[in-house]
Amino acid sequence: MNQVTLQRLMQCPLCDYRQAGQPLSPPRCPEHPSRVMVAKRWLINAPKDYLLGAKLGDKYHLIHPLGQGQFGRVYHALQDGAAGVQRSVAVKILREDRREMYALFLDEVKVISQLQSPYIAQYLDSDYDTEHGIIYLVMELIEGRSLAELMDDDGELDPERALNLVAQLLIALEEAHAARVVHRDLKPANIMVSDDGRVEQLKVLDFGVSRPNADQPREQTQGLLPGTPAYMAPELFQGYTGEVTPQMDLFAVGVILHQLITGNFPYQVEDDAENLISYYKLYSQRPKAPRISTLDRRLGQVIQRALSLDPKRRFQSARELLIALAPWSTIASRHIGDQLIELPPEPKRPRRFTLLVAAALLGGVIGLGAHALQLFLPHLTGEELTQQSPEPPTVSAQQP
Ligand SMILES: Nc1ncnc2c1ncn2[C@@H]1O[C@H](COP(=O)(O)OP(=O)(O)O)[C@@H](O)[C@H]1O
Ligand SMILES: [Mg+2]
Known about the structure:
- By secondary structure, the chain is α+β, with helices and mostly antiparallel strands.
- It contains twelve helices and 14 strands.
- It is elongated.
- Residues 69, 189-190, 206 line the site of magnesium ion.
């Protein structure tokens, strides 16, 4: 059923007055006409939210909460226009309990207002609301699911679907990085996907801790390292110099791609921001190589390279990764146009005949060696021979 015609039990956020109504053209309470009435279930779900039903900046009526993150809360709002026109938008506010993040919120407003990509939530407006003492950011309303919800609902995605989503993420990053903006908190909860039944469109949200990479990151003065451990590049923990690089975002893209296709994280990390030191140890000393057995081998290699622990071995730009993924993604190949697509070289497999010859040669060498030992070392007992044999080779931890 269309949401517009949906009748709900509506309630005034300031008193118990109730009546049936449509959330997208909410009725007013006769006692409190300054507030719109909101669906009663939101008042039950968010009983202490004094902003529900309020009007910010004299034109944005907050009708229900959409989500909450580390320092923001986002609402579905109706924007008043001339001639009684109203449209749906998303309004993000800085949470009252996170006022110390004010400077970061201002950065987010600055950054998102500069970016135009169709794959980034579009900036519409921002202002201060003096009545509620609140700063807010208005964006296009994205109707869909977060990538985290999509993964919960749909499980592992087939590679083509995953790669088309990741290609859109990379196109968004290409623009952000060109504007010298590094997102720094890419993860499925900060990405939304809407589906019109034909195509899935991805939008990047939450530039809340993003930094222009030329700038000194704020956390150096605040003693805080932003991000979500499982998606953070290892160089953030290894003698971190404070430099913010696009390769950090590209590492997160690698983790997301691995997660979309396999359902698992590529590395075992403790997702515990309090314990970054043990996380760093885990990362630097026992890296677990991604296992992607069901994939086209060359695609597996591309993903492994995107996940390299050494940033120099990773793809150096979003475009470089788009080019590498183009053979498997129509969106990536359309975006890069006629740019040369170079497939990573197929690793050479030894042929059966070569293997047989090698085995025969090896057998000959061992035979000769044993004969020579018998001739030249007759005084050694069998026990001594065993003691002198070399250690079996150790298998070094696989690095992507
Ligand atoms: N433009 C939008 N349209 C629809 N939902 C949104 C929009 N922006 C944010 N959300 C929802 O709100 C949640 C929190 O937003 P986010 O910007 O990530 O806040 P925070 O900075 O606090 O993490 C998101 O996970 C998403 O569910
Ligand atoms: Mg967020």
